[in-house]
């Protein structure tokens, strides 16, 4: 079931989205050579606590997960696509980091992700991250009243494939509102004109994930959470929570 949000609901979700944006900014600022991934999680926790917000990630355990997620932010490094668990791994110069964070505030959720490099970036990483951001922008641009979910999926997939990158099957965006994961699903590839019609008041987390090596193959690491590229190539992830409105798409997790 898809809940249609009121304008007042969207205003409340924007406040949750601002907390997410600040948490991701804190993670990015903290990331540097020699810093442990647990320190990035701590930076995000401090932002959530200061805002009086909860975390939809902490202790989250879907049916497929062997253990509850132990952090408030997913930190996926280099060949990790999504769902990386912050541990004592130390960041090194040139690492590609994808950070995904959520917040619960006033009964509403926000969810966003960003990819960046630690220190000087390799040219191929710069291109990969730029493509992820371009795919996200294309998906957002298609998130207009009267379009369908397939139009968003097609816009994302077209950018990814044109750039020569892989798209991991089975992973994509989702509805969001009172909880982090709601209907409908938002694939990262699809046929235009297909799927649920978009209406004012729908809110979607749009999140392209790109595999640098060009294949779609991936596997789940031994921790039961982290999704990695099968060929060992690097990956990038970009996400925003976006409201569908009669005035056009409204990004709720922008700074």
From TrEMBL:
Binds 2 divalent metal cations per subunit. Has a high-affinity and a low affinity metal-binding site. The true nature of the physiological cofactor is under debate. The enzyme is active with cobalt, zinc, manganese or divalent iron ions. Most likely, methionine aminopeptidases function as mononuclear Fe(2+)-metalloproteases under physiological conditions, and the catalytically relevant metal-binding site has been assigned to the histidine-containing high-affinity site. It catalyses: Release of N-terminal amino acids, preferentially methionine, from peptides and arylamides. Signal peptide: none annotated. Keywords: Aminopeptidase, Hydrolase, Metal-binding, Protease. One of its GO terms (molecular function) is initiator methionyl aminopeptidase activity. Its EC number is 3.4.11.18. A divalent metal cation 2 binds at residues 111, 174, 207, 239. It holds the Pfam family Peptidase_M24. The keyword Glycosyltransferase does not apply. Residues 12-246 form the Peptidase M24 domain. A divalent metal cation 1 binds at residues 100, 111, 239. Substrate binds at residues 83, 181. Removes the N-terminal methionine from nascent proteins. The N-terminal methionine is often cleaved when the second residue in the primary sequence is small and uncharged (Met-Ala-, Cys, Gly, Pro, Ser, Thr, or Val). Requires deformylation of the N(alpha)-formylated initiator methionine before it can be hydrolyzed. Monomer. HAMAP family: MetAP_1 (MF_01974). This is Methionine aminopeptidase. The lineage of its organism: Bacteria, Bacillati, Actinomycetota, Actinomycetes, Kitasatosporales.
């Amino acid at each position: 079931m898809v809940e249609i949000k009121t304008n007042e609901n969207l205003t409340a979700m924007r406040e949750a989205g601002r907390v997410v944006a600040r948490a991701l900014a804190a993670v990015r600022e903290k990331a540097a050579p020699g810093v442990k991934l647990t320190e990035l999680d701590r930076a995000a926790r401090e932002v959530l606590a200061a805002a009086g917000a909860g975390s939809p990630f902490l202790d989250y355990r879907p049916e497929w997960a062997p253990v509850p997620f132990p952090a408030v932010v997913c930190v996926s490094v280099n060949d990790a696509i999504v769902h990386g668990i912050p541990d004592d791994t130390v960041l090194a110069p040139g690492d590609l980091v994808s950070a995904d964070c959520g917040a619960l505030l006033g009964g509403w959720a926000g969810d966003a992700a960003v990819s960046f490099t630690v220190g000087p970036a390799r040219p191929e990483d710069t291109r990969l991250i730029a493509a992820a951001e371009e795919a996200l922008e294309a998906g957002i641009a298609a998130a207009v009243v009267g379009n369908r979910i397939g139009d968003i999926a097609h816009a994302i997939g077209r950018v990814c494939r044109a750039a020569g990158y892989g798209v991991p099957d089975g992973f994509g965006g989702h509805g969001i509102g009172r909880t982090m994961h709601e209907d409908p699903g938002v694939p990262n590839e699809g046929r235009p004109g297909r799927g649920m019609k978009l209406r004012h008041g729908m809110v979607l987390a749009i999140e392209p994930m790109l595999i640098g090596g060009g294949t779609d193959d991936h596997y789940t690491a031994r921790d039961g959470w982290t999704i990695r590229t099968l060929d060992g190539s690097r990956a990038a992830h970009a996400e925003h929570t976006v409201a569908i409105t009669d005035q056009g798409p409204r990004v709720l997790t922008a700074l």
